Automatic annotation (TrEMBL):
Its EC number is 4.2.1.17. The keyword Lipid metabolism applies. CDD domains: crotonase-like (cd06558). SUPFAM superfamilies: ClpP/crotonase (SSF52096). This is Probable enoyl-CoA hydratase, mitochondrial. Belongs to the enoyl-CoA hydratase/isomerase family. Pfam families: ECH_1. GO terms for biological process: fatty acid beta-oxidation. The gene is FADB1.
Length: 258
């Protein structure tokens, strides 16, 4: 496959694995890394052989945030002209499910990147936080918005205003992460989930993700309307006939569209 300087990529069946790979900087998310990540995500999103994508980091850090060395000299005008961090949202334009497998630190932009993914799984020693306040700034890649939607106002305010860290157990209890696994088996467990998702009919998987994400953008009545239209439209696929026929005949469905 394609070689990137700041990430590793591999595929296992219909699952793609992207590993953030700047271990010396605890996977600090500099611009070249974010470009590599966005490029790889776009390639897998377009790849007919891929049905789900796992994004992971190292044992010590998923990612310790945006790169502080890169940011320190930046000025307002630099940031404004380049729309600094704006391109990170490329992650949220990916249509296939992205699962974050977080071991170690997911801080600042690292936590924000995890929150741009569709499901977060954590190793039992993972640490989440938005410590930007300690650097004289605030979260800039969605921390104040996505964390509030994930864990509510009071817990988010505490994270963002104090910079304190949350461990994996707290993060699961708060609803930020779906499940916690022993650190050593995290990736294996997440790959099982990704394999399951990638085994389903792709149109229904894409629409499921699209519908859940819609709930963050529109009022309930609009979201329900959108959901029902998508639900209706899936009856135009062969896979709806196949899935329901397979259920009735107690056999495994053979999906046409993956
Ligand atoms: N940017 C650049 N380099 C980083 C980094 C970051 N965010 N986080 C860690 N590193 C580097 C360190 O500078 C160090 O490099 P050197 O060996 O060259 O000094 C190396 O990674 C190892 O880090 P530490 O020696 O600090 O490791 P530790 O185990 O003592 O501490 C840590 C680990 C608590 C995660 C600590 O590294 C830390 O606090 N990192 C910064 C966390 C942070 O503030 N993140 C938010 C960044 S701002 C942001 O993300 C903005 C946004 O919203 C988009």
């Amino acid at each position: 496959g394609h070689q990137y300087a700041n990430i590793l990529t591999e595929t296992k069946g219909r699952v793609a694995i992207i590993t953030l790979n700047r271990p010396d900087a605890l996977n600090a998310l500099n611009s070249p890394l974010m470009k590599d990540l966005n490029d790889a995500l776009r390639v897998y999103d377009a790849d007919e052989g891929i049905g789900a994508i796992v994004v992971t980091g190292g044992e010590k850090a998923f990612a310790a945030g945006a790169d502080i060395k890169e940011m320190q000299p930046l000025t307002f005008v630099d940031n404004y002209k380049k729309n600094f961090i704006g391109d990170w949202t490329g992650v949220t334009t990916i249509r296939k499910p992205i699962l974050a497998a977080v071991n170690g630190f997911a801080l600042g932009g690292g936590c924000e990147l995890a929150m741009m993914c569709d499901i977060i799984y954590a190793g039992d020693r993972a640490v989440f936080g938005q410590p930007e306040i300690k650097l004289g700034v605030i979260p800039g890649a969605g921390g104040t918005q996505r964390l509030t939607k994930a864990i509510g106002k009071s817990k988010t305010m505490e994270q963002v205003l104090t910079g304190k860290f949350m461990n994996a157990e707290e993060a699961e209890k708060a609803g930020l992460v779906a499940r916690v696994f022993p650190a050593a088996s995290l990736l294996e467990e997440v790959l099982k989930v990704a394999k399951t998702i990638a085994s389903y009919s792709l149109p229904s998987v894409l629409m499921a993700k699209e519908a859940v994400n819609k709930s963050f953008e529109v009022p309930l009545s609009e979201g329900l309307h959108f959901e029902r239209r998508l639900f209706h439209s899936l009856f135009a696929t062969e896979d709806q006939k196949e899935g329901m026929d397979a259920f009735q005949n107690k056999r495994k469905p053979q999906w046409k569209h993956q």
